[in-house]
Please model this.
Amino acid sequence: MNKGVGTLKSLRKMVSMVLAFALVLSAFAAYALELPDGVYTGTGAGMHSNIVVDVTVKDGKITSVDVVSHNETPGISDAAIETIPAAIVEAQSTDVDAVATATFTSNGIKEAVDNALSGEAATAQELTIDPDLIVVGGGMAGIVASVRGAELGLKVLLLEGSARIGGCIHYAGGTISGSNFKIQEENSIEDSPEAFYADVVRLGGGESELNPELSKAHCEKSGAAIDWLDEDIGVDFGSRTLVAGAYAAFDTMRVTLAGDNSGLGGALNYLNPLTDRLNKAIEEGSVQLMLNSTVTELVVKDGKCTGVKVGEVEYSAPTTLLATGGYCHNEELLKMAGFDNIVSQAPKTSNGSGFYLAQAVGGVFDNMDKLATYYGGGLMTDGFEMTYGANTSYPGRIYVDLNGNRVGDETTNDVHLWMNAPEDKLYLLISGNMIDKDTVLLKYGISTRTPLANNGWDMMDELAAEENCVYKADTIEELAEKMGAENLVATVEKYNADVAAGEDTQFGRAADTMVALEEGPFYAVETVPYAYTGSTGGVRVDGNGQLLTEDGVSIEGLYLAGEILGPTCISGNVIFGGINHAMAATWGLNAAENAAKAVE
Model:
């Protein structure tokens, strides 16, 4: 938890301070400081983490800016952390240019300085409302519940553990799915909750693979949730068309797109109008937002949830919503799916904290053995953090396991190639005769979409020099020795013979995709599967979204919404298009409406 924003260090023992509510950076301007001399602390949202700064003020001027904590990516963020603080001191303003290769980190530092020095941006996080509903987590589900709660006349306390709201919605696409919603009607699609549920059971492998009560309720309620986003919130659904959806094909068209955008960032079409409504509710006093406020305990007494604790501070309300998102940035929970090694590209807000909160009061995890991972390509250069990803479609490459053996047709890029390999690791092998420096081999960042200098080849050689997930040698024999892969030489000889003969006698790979590994330098890149933003298992609930203990008892007043429900608990052995946003909207609304009933 951030210890203070806009406060002297001597005041840091206060419970916490709240940041000014903003999802976009303020209009930066030079400071005319009227603050006592001292050191002020602020927090901003970087690419992967909260960035905390100490700003020293003397005689009305900024004399230093120190980044005191962050979890940004080493190497990529270094330039921003080194140069932005000095630039702010020189300009006496946060109106300085971001570092082009580290824009998010640069803006996070500037936001943190603004929050540290703006007197209006910092007020003690004392409770200013008597909440009817406590919402734990400020992702899409939590925002929906807060906005809907305010519409229903409730007082809502929204607690978010990071420096900004939104969570994974900042990185997600725009798909959402349901049945019997207006866009279906406009497109002459006839549907029903019963047909939706039958489709889910068909695709998911039968009722035994899901939570039937939850799934049926989701199929009944999700269409109305889409209509609420459409008609009440004003989400832009673009051309108002339906798409087949990714991953699994429904019998009936049930997936639509916010802003016609299914790619990275498409979900901002939900976040922006929801944020506008949330801001209005905050201004009107219906919602109180506390950022940097991590819930450490759910308070349950005699089978009823009466509130939460943030550290030693307890907040009470008749209804609590747990909307903390998924666990794709939690190695322990990801490995429940049976992985020896896996890395994560998920934002740190996807830390699975709500799973542990629920478990502490009797909650049960379901379907944790199911996980929608991406095929290999994640490099374990920084342990669990996936800093770099290999291009697993690089022309000509082959994969070998730790012993140097091929494991299958490399062009399939099937995640099972990795899952069936020792330690879930495969080496991507390429040779000098394949190398095209204009083709990216190594990438960086969320969804590995951020280019590296020289298409990653400079970083390849840096990692190879350290023998950090990358090995480089002039001969296959030398490479095998560095890797400790006893069968590599024989494997490459066999593969090259197959290339010459025009037939892959081991795995039937198409001959026109095969290139002999003939000339040095030879590279071996160690890769493992990786998780992105969508976890699949969930915490067990009843048909009304209340936490359900192992003995089948519902905890009164404790609701769940969003990814923590677990997509596979609704859909079984598949993930269908738009389920995550539908879980957020449907069950966020459900919690708010049940909270309203509780105070009638």
User: Anything to note?
Assistant: Confidence is low (pLDDT under 50) at residues 1-32, 119-124. The first helix runs from residue 78 to 91. The CA atoms of residues 399 and 493 lie 14 Å apart.
